[in-house]
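Dear U.,

For the methods section draft, I wanted the exact inputs and outputs in one place so we can describe them consistently. I've listed the two proteins in the order they'll appear in the manuscript figures. Please don't edit the token lines directly; just add comments below if something needs changing.

First protein:
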Amino acid sequence: MNARPKKSFGQHFLHDKRYIERIVASIAPKDGDTVVEIGPGEGAMTLPLLAVARKMTAIELDTDLIPGLQARAAAIGELKIVHSDVLKVDFSQLARELGAERLRIAGNLPYYISSPILFHCVEHSAAIQDMHFMLQKEVVDRMAAEPGSKVYGRLSVMLQLACKVTPLFTVPPGAFRPPPKVDSAVVRLVPLAPDQLPKGDPAKIHTVVKAAFAMRRKTLTNTLKGLVDEATIRELGIDPRARAETLAPGDFVKLANAM
């Protein structure tokens, strides 16, 4: 029996087999991989992933879905279900508990909380091999946007400083129950190697990026007032009259280091 999607959890259950197969093929799990799924729902992605990985973990907040998911998974492989809000899950600790060097994370993320989940995963990127997420297409466009794009912003910069972001394909509303009002898209995030990560204080980088994009139409001189002065911005080879959306992710690191 199909569960009734709950609005409060932002649930849209994927049911189209063609897209499920494409997502599983994109993740390409291998026997022995430590796969962790966020929000498995009715198990549309869980069961095909489990059939290959033989053993996996799922994080589910909705208690009503857990018994049915465990029952369906029993004949396929070993499924460990963590009943929790994903934002409270320490992925670094989870990797240690599961005896994994690094986790492979997947999930159809609820639209209303997708950005906090992405930032939370990035905080634990040292314990993560890769991530495959289905999100609102508009969010994926922002994640992968380049400088100069209208949708390039804080999300683009913070994610690209931590990961290689690759949009994979679009998923139409009809692939879900109930159909959302927007297109979705699948994206792959691969955390950068330690030597590719920005050399600087993450808290300062976050402060500069947040301030710079707080008022998109204003210049850096205005948005970074009190953080980095105009002369210093110019010394870094950055035009103080430029707007945040024209800067490459690495420029924000330079600004943060000059704070």
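Second protein (the one for the lower panel):
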Amino acid sequence: MVGALLAVGGAGRSGRQQTHLPPAAGLLAADVQASAEATNRAVVLRTTACGDTSRALGSGILIGPSRVLTAAHVVAGAGSVSVEVGSSSAVGTVRGYDWKRDLALIDVQEILPLPIQGPVNFGVLGVGDEGHLVGGATSGSIPFTVLDRTIIETDDVRSPTRSRRAGYIIDAPTQQGDSGAGIYNSAGKLVGMVFAASSESERRSFVTGSSEISTFLSEVQDGAEFRCDPAESKLTKVL
């Protein structure tokens, strides 16, 4: 059983582990520092409040020259979104989200000064493999070891229902603001995205797996736009 989960970029949620997945085969442990490719994809997100919600600090992954992936709970109550790289910042527009997977897609209104090479490539890790969490808004880039590759059950964002997603439990001390940061294998491939830390162990964090991210990106509706509804204190779709 997994104890309580604490979102590291928004409101806390609880959850428990349901099903263990078999370890991925034939993968090399990460024995080098985080790759430049992964580092160049890391951004910081800051939001203003929408209605009676609070501002948020989160992390994100640049998956294209002007497109960012983050955790949905980072932007769920956003009045506006700022995407930051070092001293540069740009306005972001939420284009899609999935409350069940806790994923959101943001378009940036200008190209950020990051020399990324094409679209993001996905990878997997097995139990005991090592990698790097890259670009957490609070923790920066830190190494980790995979403790479990599993199905995680957790509360939906802004909903009383619960859902299950494929992901990882990693040995890494993430903090508030790190939600949305990517974890990568030694080849610089995106393995998943941090969404919560354990309230029972300061070195245990929870990650949404790359298979969930890939599915979300294939399903997100092109051209959609979501803006703050102050009366509801949450994002709503612009018709």
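Candidate sentences for the figure legend, describing the second protein: The radius of gyration is 16 Å. The first strand starts at residue 5 and ends at 7.

Thanks,
Y.
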